[in-house]
């Protein structure tokens, strides 16, 4: 019997795209693993294990960062054009809402697609294990041979694994597809909500001074608040990356400051050109 001949038409189509779909799922999950070179002089006792870190924390940190940088740049660009304070506030609120809804929609679609691809691939593997156990056993043995095991050991190991359908599915998902069935994908709705809230918080920071003041004073206070927030967000990222908080915070501060400075200068030039 040809492999896949007992599959429904829809599953046969999925089977023909397994390599592309599994690669897509791994990239969406950020599962590309690179061996660490080992301890370095500046990190003699450090062990950075980010695999178990909260996905919610990652989304929160990057959501706040995106809100800060994008709305800070927008507000400074408008403020640099010398418009009335009411226009700056309007632009800041519009940027906050537009960015928050955009982030929420993007996060919802991203997580939803991840779940659908993941579930589809797992469904296909479960079907094949149930209907074509010998072909799947041979496929698993071949994977182990490619990893360096002897043919005899690979055959014995694959036979033992295939005796337990749950273990067989888990192993095929990990070894063949590069996916982890135990790793929760989360809720699209929760991801969208978290992105909306965190982006809004970040985008609100540079807007606050303009709600109570105007002109160069509000610009200076906004720059100070946003700079402190950017440094804090960058430092917080080290919980995920294991890098130096000072280095990460300074890098994030410089990136945000650079973006805000450029847009402020562009706004100033536009104001000058309009006034000519």
Strands, count: 0
Q: How many DSSP H or I helices? A: 12
Alpha-beta content class: mainly alpha
Which shape, going by the Cα principal axes?
Answer: elongated
Straight-line N-to-C gap: 80 Å
- Number of domains as seen in the coordinates: 1
Oligomeric nature of the chains: single chain
Order of helices and strands: HHHHHHHHHHHH
pLDDT averaged residue by residue: 75
> Helix proportion of residues, in percent?
over 70%
User: Describe the biggest sheet?
Assistant: none
Strand content: under 5%
**Low-pLDDT runs:** 31-54
**C-alpha Rg, in Å?**
26 Å
Structure in words:
This protein is mostly helical and 276 residues long. The protein has one domain. Helices cover 76% and strands 0% of the residues. It contains twelve helices and no strands. The protein has helices spanning 9-16, 18-29, 55-80, 85-131, 133-146, 151-162, 165-175, 188-204, 208-212, 215-236, 238-241, 245-275. Helix 4 (85-131) packs across helix 7 (165-175), helix 4 (85-131) runs antiparallel to helix 8 and helix 5 (133-146) packs across helix 6. The longest helix is centred in the middle third of the chain and has 47 residues, at 85-131. It is elongated and about 75 Å long. The N and C termini lie far apart (80 Å). The model is unreliable at 31-54 (pLDDT under 50).
